[in-house]
Specification:
The longest helix is centred in the first third of the chain and has 16 residues, at 3-18. The protein is globular and about 50 Å long. A hairpin with a 4-residue loop joins strand 2 and strand 3. It is 8% helix and 34% strand. The termini are far apart. A 4-stranded antiparallel sheet has the order 1-2-3-4, with no helix packed on it. It has a 4-stranded antiparallel sheet with strand order 5-6-7-8, with no helix packed on it. A 4-stranded antiparallel sheet has the order 9-10-11-12, with no helix packed on it. The chain has helices at 3-18, 129-134, 197-204; strands spanning 46-51, 57-61, 66-69, 77-78, 87-92, 99-103, 108-111, 119-120, 152-157, 163-167, 171-175, 183-186, 208-213, 219-223, 227-231, 239-240, 259-265, 268-273, 277-281, 289-291, 302-307, 313-317, 322-325, 332-333, 344-349, 355-359, 364-367, 375-376. It is mostly beta strands.
Length: 379
């Protein structure tokens, strides 16, 4: 495996994770509102959302699309994001007023009014240390640029001053002053064993697809080549935790599937990724085991997993696949109440009752009864 091969795989995975992957959903019995007032279109691709209350949510997506609702999706407002860049991840501080969005070409937006308005922050996150030191490519032209900006795929906001984003080539962007300044580094986990040449390439700069900090010190990052990394010192150092997934199914750590999402609640954690794979930890992310979803045809990627406060679990992904586990029970097919053929990029729960899903082809659904019934929201 050479560098070119890895680079091609890297961007193929990034595209697979964040672009259109399947045909449009079948919802023939639903009426779209008139074009003059329509806010959501079949062409929309939604990547993430944040919930501000039981009925309030903000949804982000392709081409700078930014929507808000205060009535559980019965009506929507279009918010000016000030950019046409794809917006991949959104998170809010505990005060529900301060928050950030990250996306394509190191786009970073900030709000201090609960998402009513957003301002772009001056942050250029280049994908290697040399480019960061020299502030980009001094000889860049329209045809050639040796220092492209890193796409930022995921974001975790700790409080009003501290936020961390991750992206391509193990880029980690961080602010400690409310976004006045951002610094970019390359995440380099602690090396615990001697690696061969191919493994060393994967070790050095895998794409990072998700990050979650559970407090100011403890956080997790997942990404390409099955990476699961944990910090207990606020991100100063990271250790890899995925080796416990190597066994009968994956005898080589290089064969582990890419993970797109990590979710942690207390000592329980889940990751989800390629090949329809889900893994869990019951010891705070120190060791991991594979979880069977018990649906043979679900071999497309899982992009998101949600741990509901009551102990139930949802995971969603490509081709509309969704799985659900009741508290303490096994995963099985999740009932969304309708045929869904588009990719589902994110699932999140506000509490034991209220949850949301977003994805491709203008897909937005929510529930107010813990997932027993789901409603398509088209405004």
């Amino acid at each position: 495996m050479n560098r070119i091969d890895l680079s091609g795989r890297r961007w193929a995975l990034a595209f697979a994770a964040l672009a259109s992957l399947s045909v449009a959903a079948c919802h023939g019995n639903e009426d779209w509102e008139p074009m003059a007032t329509q806010k959501i279109y079949v062409a929309d691709r939604f990547y993430d959302l944040v919930m501000l209350g039981p009925k309030e949510a903000i949804v982000i997506g392709y081409d700078g699309k930014l929507l808000s609702t205060a009535d559980m999706g019965a009506s929507w407002n279009v918010i000016d994001s000030g950019t046409e860049a794809a917006l991949y991840s959104i998170d809010m501080a505990p005060d529900k007023k301060t928050g950030w969005i990250v996306g394509q070409e190191s786009t970073i937006l900030r709000t201090t009014d609960g998402g009513k308005s957003w301002q772009r922050q001056d942050a250029k996150m280049y994908m290697n240390d040399e480019c960061r030191e020299q502030g980009g490519d001094p000889e860049a032209t329209e045809e050639s640029n040796k220092c492209p900006l890193a796409p930022l795929f995921a974001l975790s906001v700790i409080d009003e001053n501290n936020a961390i984003a991750v992206g391509d080539r193990s880029t980690v962007a961080r602010t400690t002053d409310g976004g006045k300044t951002w610094t970019a580094t390359t995440l380099k986990p602690t090396l615990t064993e001697e690696l061969d040449e191919n493994a060393m390439i994967a070790f050095e700069d895998p794409v990072l697809y998700d990050v979650q900090f559970v407090d100011g010190q403890t956080g997790f990052v997942v990404g390409e080549f099955g990476k699961i990394m944990k910090t207990t010192d606020g991100g100063k150092s990271w250790t890899e935790k995925q080796s416990s997934l190597v066994g009968e199914e994956y005898i080589d750590i290089m064969d582990l599937p890419t993970f797109f999402d990590v979710e942690v609640r207390g000592n329980t954690a889940y990751v989800a990724g390629l090949d329809g794979r889900v893994a869990t930890s019951n010891d705070g992310g120190e060791s991991w085991t594979w979880v069977a979803h018990n649906i043979k045809e679900y071999d497309a990627p899982f992009y998101s997993v949600a741990l509901v406060p009551d102990g139930s679990v949802w995971a969603v992904g490509a081709s509309g696949q969704a799985v659900y586990a009741p508290p303490g029970g096994p995963l099985g097919k999740g009932n969304l109440g309708t045929q869904v053929n588009n990719w589902i990029r994110e699932v999140k729960f506000y509490d034991e009752k209220v949850g949301w899903m977003v994805g491709g082809f203008g897909f937005i659904m929510n529930t107010n009864d813990g997932g027993k019934t789901w409603f398509r929201r088209i405004g």
